[in-house]
Specification:
Elements lengths: L1 H7 L2 H30 L1 E2 L8 E2 L15 E6 L5 E7 L9 E5 L6 H14 L3 E5 L18 H14 L6 E6 L1 H12 L6 E5 L5 H11 L7 H13 L8 H4 L7 E6 L7 H10 L4 E6 L7 H4 L1 H13 L2
Parallel strand pairs: 1-2, 5-6, 5-7, 7-8, 8-9, 9-10
Antiparallel strand pairs: 3-4, 4-6
Helix pairs in contact: 2-7, 4-5, 6-7
Length: 311
């Protein structure tokens, strides 16, 4: 009926409506393309460019009393991962924790606080900047898709250098998503994983962020994921950590903030139910999408220490 009425309109009116729809369609695509670019590109300090400012290492482990060694893990002739290795001060190491940051974070911004807590528990820690972040090469992110390969590269590096077992992978937000994808698709085999604030599906994560900024999510979220996929040669619509969780057989600890406006408790419960090995879930009642050790240090330490006793 609507189509019939459209053809009953005058030719001039039809042309105006067609041009209006075309302008709206092209404008939405242009804005979505730009939005995807800004969300997945970092701009370096001192260089103009679109994107989130690339994080820098303004704080180093020695600033909080930790001895460390800066290392680079080569990926190829032009790419590398920068890491900080912080050895335990205990006579015997309890194992090695590999820590991975969230989107736009870095080892300096997001990983020093949890690394210090693991250090006090007697663990060696390896803090890793994903490509595009901190001291690592590049200026782009794929929100956990390519980063899964970085997880595999870092774990292989630790195993090759005979770091102390057990190997525990700890991630924040995107870092957790990358860990789950690394287990599912890169076939990494850690002794345990600690997943803090993971998102369940990339599309839902984009939708929630649009809602938080009072932007209608449909169809903009779909268009952002589409153009981001085109820009980076990935399929963002299949980037779903909730499905990757089905491949996790090792012990897993899931940490989440009850007040998180970006990731719902239902999504976290779905991830938790899909984990196949022994698992524990801790909900932080007063936390949102923030680094949880800085919100409730006592609950974080209690949950992590109890979990690690069973690894």
């Amino acid at each position: 009926m609507a189509a019939f009425k459209f053809f009953r309109l005058g030719e001039k009116t039809r042309k105006i409506l067609f041009l209006f729809v075309l302008v709206v369609f092209l404008s939405l695509n242009a804005l979505s393309y730009l939005g995807a670019y800004v969300l997945t590109h970092y701009s370096s300090s001192g260089h103009w460019g679109l994107g989130i400012p690339k994080s820098t290492s303004s704080t180093i482990p020695s600033d909080i009393g930790l001895e460390y060694v800066t290392q680079r893990i080569p990926i190829n002739q032009t790419e590398w991962l920068e890491t900080w290795f912080i050895p335990t001060q205990m006579p015997v190491s309890s194992g090695t924790v590999l820590l991975f940051p969230g989107n736009a974070g870095s080892k300096a911004i997001q990983l020093l606080a949890p690394a210090k807590a693991f250090h006090h528990l007697g663990y060696d820690t390896l803090l890793i900047d994903f490509r595009g972040l901190g001291g690592s090469s590049g200026n782009t992110t794929t929100l956990g898709v390519r980063e899964a390969k970085d997880v595999a590269i870092a774990l292989n590096h630790a195993q090759h250098l005979n770091f102390q077992r057990p190997f525990i992978l700890y991630g924040v937000s995107m870092g957790s998503a990358a860990i789950l994808k690394a287990v599912a698709d890169e076939k990494v085999n850690p002794d345990a994983v600690i997943l803090e604030l993971p998102f369940a599906r990339l599309l839902d994560a984009v939708r929630s962020r649009l809602r938080a900024n009072w932007i209608p999510p449909f169809p903009i979220a779909e268009m952002i994921v589409f153009w981001g996929s085109i820009q980076h040669g990935i399929n963002g619509f299949t980037h779903n950590p909730v499905n990757y969780a089905k491949q996790v057989q090792c012990p897993a600890l899931l940490l989440h903030g009850k007040l998180d406006k970006w990731i719902t408790l239902a999504e976290i419960d779905h991830i938790f139910q899909n984990l196949q090995g022994s698992k524990e879930l801790t909900i932080f009642p007063n936390a949102d999408h923030s680094l949880l050790v800085t919100v409730d240090k006592e609950l974080w330490q209690q949950s992590v220490e109890q979990f690690l006793k069973g690894v």
